[in-house]
Amino acid sequence: MKKCFKFLLAVVVVLSGLYLFPTGSASAEGKEVGGTYYIDVTAATIWTAPNLLREVDKYSATNPVDLRKWTTSMTYQDKLGLVGKLETQALYGAKVTVLENNGDWVKVAVHTHPTPKSEVGYPGWMPAVQLAKDKSFENQLHRPFALVTSPTAWLYDEKRAENEFLELSFNTRLPVMQEFENEVLVATPSDGKKWLKKSDVAIYNHEQDIPSPTGNDIVETGMKFLNLPYLWAGTSGFGFDCSGFTHTIYHANGIVIPRDSSVQATHGTSVERKDLQPGDLVFFAYQEGKGRVHHVGVYIGDGKMLHSPNSSTHVRIDDIEAAGYGKEYAGARRYVK
Hints:
Elements: H1 2-15, E1 36-39, E2 43-47, H2 67-73, H3 76-80, E3 86-91, E4 95-102, E5 105-110, E6 122-127, E7 131-132, H4 135-138, E8 145-148, E9 152-156, E10 164-169, E11 173-179, E12 183-187, E13 193-197, E14 201-204, H5 215-223, E15 235-236, E16 239-240, H6 242-251, H7 261-264, E17 269-271, E18 281-285, E19 293-301, E20 304-307, E21 316-319, E22 329-334
Antiparallel strand pairs: 1-4, 1-7, 2-3, 4-5, 5-6, 8-11, 8-14, 9-10, 9-13, 11-12, 12-13, 15-16, 17-22, 18-19, 18-22, 19-20, 20-21
């Protein structure tokens, strides 16, 4: 299979001591500026500029990627080194528009991540090898889609689910080709049809068919990720930053909110502290709450929030009055009715 070949090629090159990343035969040449493409890896990590990769980042820059190995191989200092260098992540099958080319890198706009930075979507740089453009995939996008609801889920080569093909993240969406009692046949961006376990997904005809969530639904979704390590710019079941966490759990419930906490804090409906309800987003800002918003969490009730705090820790529950947060409380927003 194509992905197996590319993975073996990456291994051979690494073992030979000649590792040059990103691995793969595709380059930015041929990626048409203004063209629409689709993410062809579990999650593409979007950088502030091309060619910023460190040796430890090689697992995130190939096709396929190994995000679990990437996140677990980084030290705390390695994780801190990502701060300010990453923009966001885009999940398998997500649509992007190419904005610029630079060698083996492309600047893209991620359509599903609203931002004031671009009307098209969240902009940033990624390896061109992680993009695909396949008419057979595009032609299936009108179909019902499978939404991954497990923290991660495997795509399989066959219906009996014995040969694992690719581990997907929560909130990944793929067109449904056929639905069975326990399995779902889906289209992929460049590798034809693959299988998902039905227990890992929800199936909808259209985005608007996702049931309108309650605040408690938002909290319940977020609780799936307790203890998941923090990852700057992360938007996947392999690691979240604070606003990537809130953006993703809302998106999986059919509500698209801005990607960054500072922008999330200006949308939705303002909520007084005394009126906080589960599912509301609570914000924290420098200068004792009067400066720039730098953090967001999900209120869960009883004065507590569920959040992904920083590179030293993981998704957890804290009191909104906890040290480092209480004095910086900057208000709340509600995105559910």
